[in-house]
Amino acid sequence: MALIEWEDKYSVGVEAFDNQHKQLIKLINELYDAMKAGAAKEISSKIIEELVAYTVIHFQSEEKVFDEHDYEGTEEHKKEHQQFIDQVASFQKDFETGKVSLSIDIMNFLKDWLFSHILGTDQKYTSYLNSKGIK
Fold it and tell me: Which architecture does CATH list for 13-131?
């Protein structure tokens, strides 16, 4: 069973961003499955690397559109992105050095952050970007 299931209520009204959110959910679910299966550290490390890399790509995509369309919430949104990148990078470093292991607490952090960000911060840009013709 997946840790996270996509629901239409998570849509931000921008297809490209919704697809990227779905990919992030897929990667979190893969990491969750690896944790449950007690997968080797190398497998988990690879998934964490993919998650980190894809998160950066997604954040850059959003931020580029914000900058192009003078979205007023850009700076606050970028701060949230950077805080998440910093937290995940710290976790990745601690995981690689053996200070922490994959746990349900970490998985819940990823899940909770993603959904609070999508349902909170990301929903704020929907009507603005849609009004600029971005759907």
Answer: Up-down Bundle (1.20)
pLDDT at 20: 96
Distance CA 105, CA 12 (A): 27
Gap between the Cα atoms of 104 and 128, Å rounded: 36
User: Within 10 A of 29 (CB to CB), how many other CB atoms are there?
Assistant: 18
Please name which of 20, 22, 30, 18 lies closest in space to residue 5, comparing C-alpha atoms: 22
Q: What is the pTM of this model?
A: 0.91
pLDDT tens across 71-117, in order? 999 999 999 999 999 999 999 999 889 888 888 888 989 999 999 99
- The Cα–Cα gap between 6 and 26 comes to 9
The residue extents of the domains of the chain are 13-131
* Closest alpha carbon to 64 in 83, 78, 54, 50: 78
Helices 41-68 and 123-131, axial angle in degrees (round to 10): 40
Alpha-carbon separation of residue 87 from 6, 34, 58, 91, 94 (angstroms): 24, 20, 16, 6, 11
